[in-house]
Amino acid sequence: QHYFIQSNLRIMTFQSKRAWRLQEFAAHGGNVNCLALGLKNTRLMATGGEDRKVNLWTIGSPTVTLSLSGHTSGIDCVGFDQSEEHIVAGSASGTIKLWNIDKAQVVRTLSGHKANISALAFHTYGKFLASGSLDTNVRLWDTRRQGCICTYKGHGGRINCVKFSPDGKWVVTGSEDGTVKMWDLGTSKVLHEFKLHRDGVSCLEFHPCEFLLATGSEDKTVKFWDLETFDLVSTTSPEAKPIRQMVFDPKGEGLFSGAEDSLRVYGWEPARVHDSLCIFWGKVADMTVQSNQLIGASFQHTNVSVWVVDIGKLKPFNGDLTPLVEPIEQVPLPAIPVQEPTPSAPSSSVVNPAPQPLPPAQTAASTERYEPLKRTPPRQRKNAQHWEQKGPTQQVKPPGIEAPQGMDPNIAIGKISLLDNQPADTSVSEQEFLKTCAGGHRGVRDNLETRLRNLQYVRTVWSKGDIKEALEVALDLQDQGVAVDMFQAIQSRPAIWDLHICTIVLPALRTLFHSKHENHLFVACSTLKHIIRSFGQLIRDNINAPPAGNIDITREERYKKCHLCHQQIANISREITRHSGAQGKLGSAIREIIKLSESFY
Q: How far apart are CA 125 and CA 81, in angstroms?
């Protein structure tokens, strides 16, 4: 045990020199759905949330710089243009809006997708935008003319990622169906389809120098593809968690791959792990490299976290070319307090197959093949040939974005390195380490002990045979976790249900639908579905045929219960519509409930 503690202390001190969490703050009034880091000025970050707002931040400050509104549903995807003069955001309704940052106003609204926007990317040089959607289609937009140039069809699942090639001639799309398609913008046809992933493709990245494409997947692997021959170059071994984000370093010497609890540096000829860090950043949504730093941003519920990695202390950038042979032990980075904000293959078709040509100065309409480039081994990349570049390369500071009050403006525009904020290299005693660990777990332990006592009390009442009283006791405890456990237990026993049980459960379900925990919402959906399917017809029949003049106490009581249930279901139906834009299985369950409720009336 003593050796284990000393080992963890040593690793924690070592890790703190290489990576740390810079900040964590509440970014939106509702859940955060997406975020994006600036393409030029990596100190800028945009976030989108269920509150239908797009917020602009300066990294290092918890104060929102600019808040943009205009969407009528939750924001599912957000991004900057190349010059960072505009922010684009796609919503759950399938609408895309483009804001001018300087004027803080909507300049374009693009409609055409039939479901949630799941991916956005600006063209490398021109004023063109590619969008992917849950409707499985990819659209190319001319943001100046406010129109769709063409629609690419062929994927069999949601579009998870879209990326233009560095020279602007191709657009590559990755889908939940596990395939990657490369489209030629000049001919509007599929050049190639990459199929070897076994699960959804979550991210794409072009090598900055060579004709090489990296694809990351929910199958936990990264694959490297030769874009001259379209052959597979290599595949990494599966990680512990699905790949969420990737980025090449600017010189192309390594690929950074981010999963929920790790960062790895990969080489590809052959596939190997140069280095590995355990970073428990959760839903890492974007990563970028600048000034020998990797900046990663993640979100969880309403909070956003920003992490910094000192690349100079990772292999092979520190001069150590020895591949990693032993996994790094999993040690979480020290937590910091949360700050609150202060204000081919299957046939692929294309709609509009003869798209409007792009302007000559920024054309992507060329079917001419590149001169063959000889890929050099990763260690000999000094003389590697580059993608053809046609656009400006200077950094552009977005107009109208000033540093927050009290913050050095040099930090806001990226002149001061975030390495200056690196935690001090102080030794941690064994006693302090144990105290820190105990403090972090005390709250969780107390909550679990309280939950156990409450459940034991409910079980004691239930064991006496009075199910209704046990249910009322469970709900009187005002503990949503206990209520969820109780609902799951009684769902598996349909024989105990009656109208009286429904009148007890429905008010609690209305409260449960306001929970921020996805599991609570799932249980609320399944319980409400059970009530509507089991008692919906009985409730409707009694509401439509109220008691006559004759005295019938049993029928009158049944009518009162049905009337109460009818009112409660109506109240819940009106309130859960705010969740109708949710994605995944939860969104499907809620939309099923909404449909059932409509048929109920």
A: 9
